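Instructor's aside before we start: the two examples that follow are unrelated to each other. I chose them only because their records fit on one page, so don't look for a connection. First example below.
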Amino acid sequence: MKKLLIFAIIFLLPSAVSEMSHSPSEVASGDSFTAIIDAEEDVKKITFYVCTLKDPYTCYKPEKMDRNDSINGRFQFTYQVKDNDYPGYKYYLEKDDGGNETIPRQDDFAHYEGLEVEKMEDTDSYYFRVDIKSETSDEDSRLSSINLISIAAIMAIIALSGRR
């Protein structure tokens, strides 16, 4: 019976914890990314901030969303990347009890699995970093993947021929 209870708690725990992510994980100039936060029921409003994390440092007008505008407690914000933009974002949560919270918190980076947190230079502000696509062409990446496939195939042939 104890094992069944522990098993149930393990499956229910992720639904009770707020979840954050953004998609896609890499963007280029002109692309958009969508930041998502699944908030707990006591969150009544979220303010979404985007700033560039490299020179020239720029912060854009924040967006606000009430719980009534969310989809079952899921707040979504979309941002279009500009030229020479190295975007980062953070959330400011306003709760029913009058409390508030800024995410990411500087004291708990491990809580944000899969997201990289970066401190904005010369401030005490922390942001989730959105990676910028590299300048290399698609052909270069295809060539390297073909080479890896060829090497793996050769190793498999050698290993199989040695089994006789």
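Example two begins here.
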Amino acid sequence: MGRVIAVGEGGRPQAPVRDDRFGDVLGLVVARNLLGRPLLTPQCRDFDHADEIRRALYRSAKYYCSCGHSSCTRRYRNYPAGGQPGGCPHGGQRISARADVVKDADGRYYVQVTFRDKTAAMQAIVDKYGPDPDNWPYNPWARRIRKDD
């Protein structure tokens, strides 16, 4: 199933819902230099609760920039374009998240999450594969062609 986009007045699609529930957690991760380390959340009630926490962590990281400007992540890219440095012009740090629901031997659910610096990750890709996104192993802006079975 594809993404479901809410339709507003006049049939126009709405912007995705911003979710900053874990913004304070991201601030602590950056302040304590825990980027790149796998972290485990406290025990979750059930799988649905763990999945909701996983999604909220991802959405919070998507819109997080330590500069505090609410639209920073929408206005400025994470990679250098046209000789200009990429990232936040205010000196903020952006974070990406990789979160998975995990289950221990006793059947308890947790969320294991790893946060990374977005700008440093994109710069590493540019350094390794060059500035042309067509040469990258994954191009997030490439147009996908669906095969009809």
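The first helix runs from residue 23 to 31.
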